[in-house]
Structure formats: structure tokens, C-alpha cells
Write the C-alpha cells for this entry.
Amino acid sequence: MSKSNIYPISKSFVSRNEKEYLIGSKSGVFWLFGLSGSGKSTLAMELEKKLHSNHIYSIILDGDDLRSGLNQDLGFSVTDRRENIRRVSELAKTLCHAGQVTIVSCITPKNEFRETAKDIIGIKNFHGIYVKASYSECAKRDVKGLYAKASADEIESFTGKQSDFEEPENTALILDTEKEDIDDSLNRLYSFVNRMIQIK
């Protein structure tokens, strides 16, 4: 079917501002990116708990969860990674426009992918957060056993080894989990997010 035969109805929905007022906070997408094992998922989960304890509703889009469901048909080629980010971005945009504080935890290894996410979600709604830790530090942690498998060449296109991870050109916040403990990173993350979502 031609795109000319598609008629979006989103302009007739209850407005984002009305939903934000009902929920009690402004929406936004807080996109945590970094190497596997850098602390993205841990920070996302702890942020959700801290927001919840302060009566702020949020939702997490985790890369591994999405790859086991919505994006299970995708591999790890550059083309598939690009499509993975596109789909996650479209979902995050939909949730943001529905008034939700949306936390994304996704490796997002290339600046190109981060720009795609920002373009889809919108520059005012997208907040890139680099969860920084070196490959050697993440390999030392190896919480999922992936670095050991990558070292034994049991994983193809592993980010940081066969597949490059690009340092961000610019981003809203950097959390260096190699140099600061998780509580310090979480407190800085929460402070940033809370500042962005306050209804003036």
C-alpha cells in the first residue's frame, strides 16, 4: 500500500501537555549509551526506582529486552544496528509524546546512530547520556560473560573488539563509572533528569 494512503490520527489525541499535567512531570527521552557492562542498565533501573520513590512515573526501554522481542529479527551488522536504533527511537518518541519519562539503555556505538535517535525523537526531547567505561574495565567486570566469549572469538561483531565504539562528539551528560562509584553516578543522573522533567 502506498504511503499516500496512510492517514495518521495522532493530531487528534489528547495533547502531550494535558497528559504531562495529569502525570505531574514533563516527558523526555533519557538515552543512556556506552559499552556493554559500563553500567547503563544498572543506572536505568536505579533511576526508575528513585523516580518512582518520588512519585514520578517512568518507563525503561532496554536494548537486550527489545532484542529478545520487538527486534528479535535483527542481527549485529551495521545495517541491523541502524534499524535497531531506528525502531527504538520511534518507540521512545511515541512514549515521550504520550507524556512518559522514557529511559533508554542501549549501546548505540556510533555517532551516526545517536544523531538518528536525536533526529527522530527531536532535539528538545532527546537527552544523550554517555555511561563511560573503558573496554578493559568492562572486560574486568564482565557481568554477562560476554567479554570472555568475545576474547575466545565466540561472538561476532562484538562492540569494542570487532565492531567500533565511537566516543561521543557531544552529549548532555557523561557518567564515568570507571572513576566514580555507582551512587555518585546515579545522583548526578537523577539530578539531571529531575531538572529536565519539572513542570514550571
User: Anything to note?
Assistant: The first strand starts at residue 28 and ends at 33. The radius of gyration is 17 Å.
